[in-house]
Amino acid sequence: MAPPKRPGSRFPITLDPDVYRLIAHYIRADSKLKTVEEWKAENKLLNMLCLISKEWKDAALPALLSQILITDSDDRFETLQKRLRAIFHLIQDGRSGYVESLSIALDDKNRSLRSLPEYLEDALVNSFRRILSLLDSSNSTARLECLSISTSASWSEMLTPIISSLQLPCLKMLYFQFTNYRVDVEWLGTFLEGCPDLEDVTFNLDCYTYFNTNWDTRTLREKNLLSHLVTFDGTPKQLALLQTPTTDLEKVRLTPWDGRSSADTALIFIKELEWIGNPFCNVTDLTFSIGSYPPLSLDLAALRALAGSFPALRVLDGLRMERRLYFEEFMASDLGRVAGCLERLEIVTFYEDTLRRTEGEIQSQSSLPSESLDSAFFKLAIIFPSIVSATLVHVDRKTGRFPNSYQTPSPTPGGKRVYSFSKEGPGNVRTDGYDPPLPQNYLHRTPTKLSII
Predict the structure, then answer these.
(1) Each residue's pLDDT expressed in tens, for the chain with a length of 453 residues
(2) Taking the domain 76-239, which CATH number applies?
(3) pTM, two decimal places
(4) Which of 53, 187, 215, 436 has its CA 20 to 30 A from that of 123?
């Protein structure tokens, strides 16, 4: 097809092929946060470009297929099956090389897979198998970089046998969320062996459904899986999959067991850190993924556990301040026992629940600053000689949620109190509101090559 002519001109409008590709790439934004609505809007625009001319189609189609989302937003399984067939036909015949990110988000809350006719269940399984086979290394054009799978128990039971045999040598980022489904460690090991170059992994596996089961990681550690990992999000026991002397791990987000009390959570979390074994000497950033409350307060046991597992920390986000009095008493004690415990730590963040729960009762405690609290915070420089700033975040009074959790908090009058430090001694203090919260329809943290959950 000839290039279009400009109105009133004898000369057609021509662009360099790189310009077409640049425009298409700009439309398919590599944002780390993207809603399904934004993704659909990008698809609509890229589809329109494909209809303009051959030049536009050659540039827009790779961008269109670079990010694929499979979801069951419709209540009819027949509709999902039609969508799967359409995706398969789009990416076959060599076009599977365009697919950089695949996200599968399936939930059967309003209907049951177990009630499916056998022929339709077989058709769905076969469709998923055909699509995933095109992205496997057996297909020479495949170059999938990001895989995100978020499914309910019945979907997980259907898909895990297909996933386990995949060979994805180009995969850099992985997100697994299998709700109410017990993940077998051997299955996980088999899958990870086929993904040797993973750099960013998130395991959101309802991890403590198997807390008391035999989650033996010794065999997998001997295989030296995830040796190129840079970022990890999961539980301490899953972190034990890594063989620490060879890992490049730098950033960790840990999900603790949510005990019946803060004491339960702290004791079990410290015990879990012992499972890790050798310290991760390259980890500089540690965040606790917070459920009902953070796992650790600042005390002797917590500091020793953290220093033993993550001695090179520069950023620590997620310490609990259950009672200010306890914190102030600890900071007034003999700090020589822990002086220089994490000597490289520069930034630390505490969370304070202003609705303190005591023996089933909810009691309000003040979130107002005090001289004794400020004095205690500035003594952190004794424990962390490289500290630059410390932040105390007040939890939403209405919901009890923590800003660091997967839940989005509501702004509160308390906000946060930030303490700055200098080499000459204590610096200044300021009180801020929360950072603007993300809209509720934003999806899980996503990779550079976007995966939509």
Answers:
(1) 455 555 555 545 678 888 988 999 889 876 556 778 888 899 999 999 999 988 999 999 999 999 999 987 666 788 888 999 999 999 988 899 999 999 998 887 656 666 778 888 889 999 999 999 999 988 878 889 999 998 888 888 888 889 888 999 999 999 998 877 777 777 888 888 899 899 999 988 764 444 444 556 666 777 778 888 999 998 887 887 777 666 789 999 988 765 445 566 778 888 878 777 678 889 999 998 765 556 788 989 889 889 988 999 999 998 888 788 889 999 999 998 888 889 999 999 998 875 554 444 444 455 566 888 899 999 999 999 999 999 998 876 454 444 444 333 333 434 788 999 987 766 777 766 544 443 333 333 333 333 333
(2) 3.80.10
(3) 0.81
(4) 187
Taking the domains of the chain in order of start, what are their residue ranges? 15-65, 76-239, 250-435
d(CA 46, CA 48): 5
Structure token digits, residue 42? 């990008």
Rounded distance, CA 143 to CA 135, Å?
A: 7
Which two structure tokens, joined as six digits, stand for 133?
Answer: 């086979």
The whole-angstrom separation of Cα 374 and Cα 317 is 19
Which secondary structure element, helix H or strand E, spans residue 131, and what is its range? helix 118-135
H or E element that contains 318: strand 315-320
